Amino acid sequence: MATQGFFITGTDTGVGKTVATACLLALFRKHGLNVGVMKPIETGVDPECSSSANSDAKFLMEIAQCSDPLSLVSPVRLKTAASPYQAAKMESRSINIERIINSFRQLSDKHDPMLVEGVGGLLVPITPNYLICDLIRDLGLPLLVVSRNALGTLNHTLLTLRAAQQAGIPVRGVILNRCEAGGKDVIEQGHADIITELSGVPVLGEIPFLGEISEKSFTDDLLDQLEASLDFRELLATG
Question: Which one, 106, 129, 186, 227, has the greatest CB density within 10 A?
Fold first, then answer.
């Protein structure tokens, strides 16, 4: 049976992939699921000196209350804040794709569902001839696209969805992320319907602005708010 879960990508760097992944982890845990997490490649982090404050992988492990080895959760960790290929090139390192896939298989044997957070967007290079979209295909997970709900998101989101479809990657849906405090204007209120109309991909809801979050942020009230904001029944029907 195929592993259930999602690969979480974004339309760009800084759109809230890690926030969205953390919210999904907390919701799946609320429902009693044995959820596993993976950040296969992390850049911009010192492998010898990192914490949940400056490492997405360690932060997600904290949210998931994960006891899996960091070497499986995040098998590739690079200090340079750049694409994996550029960071590895600058550090005179090579990225072992098979190690990433084997780590995923080991974790997926222990957990169901699995949430795997990517780095950057779909066309970010891992090696000269292997992109994030190639990794998604090899892991065999459906895609969730996190998009910033702000001016410009239509272009970024539709480009990402088209790239996924052209690569033959099944897309479960789009999650909008509110990156700034305050109400939505009339333009932002219309984004979800237009994305679905033009792409045929459902928008599964919007994560409200959360600011800085930690494990303690996910109170019962916040989890109820998130569950009301997202089409969580669709997300629970993983696979």
Answer: 227
From 25, 40, 5, 8, select the one nearest 145 (Cα to Cα): 8
- Using a 10 angstrom Cβ sphere, with 0-12 exposed, 13-18 middle and 19 or more buried, the burial of residue 83 is buried
In whole angstroms, what is the distance from residue 69 CA to residue 77 CA? Answer: 13
pLDDT digits (tens, 9 = 90+) for 51-101: 777 899 999 999 999 999 999 999 999 999 999 999 999 999 999 999 999
Rounded distance between C-alpha atoms, residue 12 and residue 70, angstroms: 25
For residue 89, indicate whether it is catalytic: no
CA distance 38 to 72: 8
CB 7 within 8 A of CB 142: yes
How confident is the model over 150-199, as pLDDT tens digits?
A: 888 999 999 999 999 999 999 999 999 987 777 777 888 899 999 999 99
Query: How many Å apart are CA 108 and CA 82, to the nearest integer?
Result: 28
Give the pair of three-digit tokens for residue 85. 């290929």
> Tokens standing for 93?
């390192």
Collect all residues with Cβ–Cβ distance below 8 Å to 8 and sequence separation of at least 6. 17, 20, 21, 24, 115, 116, 117, 118, 143, 144, 146
Catalytic pick among 17, 30, 39, 58 = 39
Encode 199-212 in three state secondary structure.
HCCCEEEEECCCCC
Superfamily of domain 5-234, CATH level 4: P-loop containing nucleotide triphosphate hydrolases (3.40.50.300)
